Amino acid sequence: MGKDLVFITLSHPDDAKSKSTRRCIRKRVMREIGRSRRTRPSPPPTWDLSSLLVHGPLQVPVPDGREAIPRCPDPSNARYYPIALGSRGLQLVQFMTTEAESVYRPFRAIWFSMGMTDPSAFTLCLANAAMFWHQATQPDSFEYAKSTECLTYYGHCVAQTTRRLGDADDCVSEGIITTILGMICHDMYVGTWERWHIHTSGLRRVIFLRGGFDAQGCVVWDCHPKLPECASEDTDRSENAKQSSPVVDALIKSPIIDFRDIGVALWEVSSVAAFLNSNASQPTFFWRRENSTAAMELLMPATRTLLSMSRPSGPMTVLGRAREAVRLALLILLAAAKRDVFLFSSDEMAPLLGKFASLIRQSCSRRPMSEPDSTYSACTNLWLWALTTVSISCWSEMQIQRHDGLYLDKICQLMTLLGIQTGREVIHEAKSTLWIDESLRPGNVVENFISALNERYLYYTTQSA
């Protein structure tokens, strides 16, 4: 440590103004700067999409052992970038780079690195940067539709892409696919779902032309996936424990097709729940890393399974309503995991919750004379699980939309039919089917739900008496 210190002795305050003292200080301070100026700069990195997908984005190590912060190349040097940048463009790149040190945005590093491979994709990166800049500098007045700079860059990207789609070779290039993927993600972020639909349809045509990821947007529309299942979704995830409960196992083995469908859907999502629960105690696990795609690899296969299930048409039986209730509840559960665990946007929550509420308004407790006892009993338990799961996953949304009273009243009816008397017993029943750990949910939502349900049940039984 002594080699890094220089001691200067002063016998009088005026000695600090002497030329020799000031020269000594200047020499010491400028030593590292002079050394850096004499060092030959390293050549700029090359960017290749196939290499990027294998090795991941550029990283800068952090000395204290934390996760590396994704960074772009020297943000002040325009020669690194796929398009010519003026001072404002360089300023946006600098903002995007430095913001990564303090603001979490999923997939920021991945999309910026992919943008470096193609001029049109990089123009879209500038649109994103302009949008985030305006959000940061005008948090109270920002409106996407009035973000002129963002929309200008976005318009340039669309114009370039449209022109390139007219080229027989370029229209199926990696750069075009990267750009369209970026536009789809941009549309998902700002919630322009009509535009998302156009871009997803276009991507499907491009992929078809090449010979052969749309589940997120399809959840908002609750429609069947448009694109074929990708290879990464077709892998064996048994180690994530398709650890299904005895309840789910019994449904899968049922001779009734609708029950088997419900069992398969629950079984698919149980692997997600088991994986999340087993890692709930690791606060620094992958779900808070901007350069990780593991979250989507975990959630998308189950999401595609639920979206691929048939929808009810015409009048529904008790079993048909229970099947649809479980399907919607599982989609809502995955949306809540995206929002609460991975901090992703979940625009699908509102339309899914609206569909579920409409389904609830049909009777889920009155038994038709034609239904056998065993079928009716099983449906009652499935309804209890679905209502409990959705209530806990969307407690704040339901209170805002005033659905909580409807949900709690239906749960109270089911509690009476099943001989359950407390909210904690309801939670126990839900856990016996499929459950995501309380530590992965915001605040004290489970305890708040139990308290509200106990109060509602007391009122319900008093009124019934």
Automatic annotation (TrEMBL):
It holds the Pfam family Fungal_trans_2. This is Uncharacterized protein. InterPro entries: Fun_TF. It comes from Cephalotrichum gorgonifer. Keywords: Nucleus. The keyword Nucleus applies.
